[in-house]
Amino acid sequence: MSDLLHVGCPHCKKMNRVPAQRLSDGPKCGACKGALAEGAVAELSDAEMPGYTGKSDLPVLVDFWARGWGPCKAMAPEFQSAAKSWRGQVAFAKVNTEQAQQASARFGIRSIPTLILFRNGKEIARQSGAMQASQLTAWLRTQLG
Length: 145
Ligand code: ZN
Hints:
By secondary structure, the protein is of the alpha/beta class.
């Protein structure tokens, strides 16, 4: 079976190769033993961002956010809850725009929160403004067809 998917670990950010059919089976990271596909949200730095979004065989949804900003605070639990419902299908990650300034500049983030959906490292969709988990799920469904 050549049906191995590259999946980034949300805890240590290392890439793992997981058989597609095992994704729903609670796979663990080979490096840190953290749960790979149980809906944890990865916190990405400038250095981690290209590999995490570019090498993943799952689409990666990145939330560009900032601390102490009301709409981001409101969105955080919604994002977390959507991450759980999409576990094993879409990897969820966050980029703190105050810390990861290179990534924020590269993607021209002008308002926060901004969500960018990556597939094979390419931006395929973006959306600005806070969303509830149900809106986020509806939006993702439209983008992923
Ligand atoms: Zn790990």
